[in-house]
Amino acid sequence: MLAQDIHSYITAFRNAPWETRESVHHQFHYTKRSLAEVEIEKIIRIQEDAYGKITEFLGLASYPEEKISYYLYPDAETKKRLVGSSWFAQSIYNDFAVHALYTEEHRVIGPHEDTHLLSLPLGLSIGFLQEGLAEYMVGHDWYGNQFIEVVSETFIDGKFIFSPGLLIDHQAWLDTEDEYARQYYSLRLLHWLLDRNIWEREIFQSLRVP
After folding, report:
1. At 21, is the pLDDT very low, low, confident or very high (cuts 50, 70, 90)?
2. Fewest CB within 10 angstroms: 23, 48, 58, 79, which?
3. Whole-model pTM?
4. Domains with residue ranges and CATH for the chain
5. Are 27 and 68 in contact (CB under 8 A)?
6. Does residue 142 register a pLDDT over 90?
């Protein structure tokens, strides 16, 4: 069992009346007459493309045979009631599952959560590297802005003072204020490293969550 800080996690979703569709590498659960039901073919295409992109980049010898289970919620209230959190998305390591909002305003799909799950064979690295890798695979924010530009602006505006502790201390990462969207910070260094093909699995594996 992998340790994960999911204190609010509940499993009421397991008894919910889901509609289900499967693809090559995913199993999707969504509610009747929801936006996810209407757009399920698009969702499948996006996630299968993401899976291929991630596995090609990681270049691991093998990946879990289990399909990634996606639970797509029609609103934040339903998500809170069924899984214990109204946040946009969470990947649950030991369930090999993702719980995400899928609404007109927030279609929370793509490479990010899949990256967390598919990189598990490397072990759980510190938050800085986990989020940095996941956001690098996305490459832009929800509004289409390139992350390196968003991160640079954050530093230039003085909204965030980078701490070297984020690179080596998982608790320092957890203590960072959520309002700054921690994954933005990850990209400042990680984007530089990855764009220069400095993808060292040894670094990712050595800086583990304690």
Report:
1. very high
2. 48
3. 0.80
4. 12-122 (3.40.30.160), 127-206 (no CATH)
5. yes
6. no
